[in-house]
């Protein structure tokens, strides 16, 4: 098995994040610029352009914030709509199968949690390496728990 990453470690889709945030800024500036340049618009109409640009930026920023943070106590999964904190004991399996859009964590309660912070979209090899690192961490923590329980 390869060397485990030093904790805490954050996994996030860097290329996708950069693209989303850049697109958000460009869209906001473009829509706001149109509001300024268009003649015949009232203040309310101009404001609606700026607000629309800001909302688009906000949505793209929410998409860009996804990440998985592993530390000594467990894993924090930050997805688009929310954040979930897991103890290492809750994670039974880390899966990234061919064709999966992101990593899935199989949990001890019988559910599966998508972890959007590791996704093979633009950087497939990095996502595979990140998934393997998270899997190795989960397995190491599981082995350490078994040793503590038996000791």
Write structural notes for this entry:
The chain is of the alpha+beta class. The chain is 48% helix and 21% strand. It has helices at residues 14-37, 43-64, 124-150, and strands spanning 9-11, 67-70, 74-78, 83-87, 91-95, 103-107, 112-115.
What is the CA-CA span between the terminal residues?
24 Å
Query: Widest sheet: strand order?
Result: 1-2-3-4
Shape: elongated
Query: Count of helical segments?
Result: 3
- Topology as a string of helices (H) and strands (E): EHHEEEEEEH
**Averaging pLDDT over every residue, what do you get?**
92
The class by helix and strand makeup works out as alpha+beta
Percent strand? 15-25%
Cα-atom radius of gyration? 20 Å
Low-confidence stretches: none
Helix content: 40-55%
Strands, count: 7
Q: Sheet with the most strands? A: 4 strands, antiparallel
Helices and strands in order, then pairings?
Layout: E1 9-11, H1 14-37, H2 43-64, E2 67-70, E3 74-78, E4 83-87, E5 91-95, E6 103-107, E7 112-115, H3 124-150
Antiparallel strand pairs: 1-2, 2-3, 3-4, 5-6, 6-7
Helix pairs in contact: 1-2
Structure at a glance:
Helices cover about 50% and strands about 20% of the residues.
Give keywords.
single chain; elongated; 151 residues; alpha+beta; 7 strands; 4-stranded antiparallel β-sheet; 3-stranded antiparallel β-sheet
């Amino acid at each position: 098995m390869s060397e485990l990453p030093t904790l805490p470690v954050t996994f996030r889709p860097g290329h996708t994040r950069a693209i989303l945030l850049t697109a958000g800024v460009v869209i906001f500036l473009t829509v706001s610029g149109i509001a300024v340049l268009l003649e015949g618009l009232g203040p309310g109409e101009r404001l609606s352009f700026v607000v629309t640009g800001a909302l688009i930026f906000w949505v793209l920023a929410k998409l860009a914030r996804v990440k998985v943070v592993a530390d000594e106590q467990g894993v924090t999964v930050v997805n688009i709509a929310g954040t979930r904190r897991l103890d290492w004991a809750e994670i039974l399996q880390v899966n990234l199968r061919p064709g999966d859009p992101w990593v899935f964590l199989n949990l001890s309660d019988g559910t599966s949690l998508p972890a959007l912070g590791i996704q093979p979209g633009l950087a497939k090899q990095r996502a595979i390496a990140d998934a393997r690192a998270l899997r190795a961490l989960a397995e190491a923590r599981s082995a350490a728990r078994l040793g503590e329980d038996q000791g």
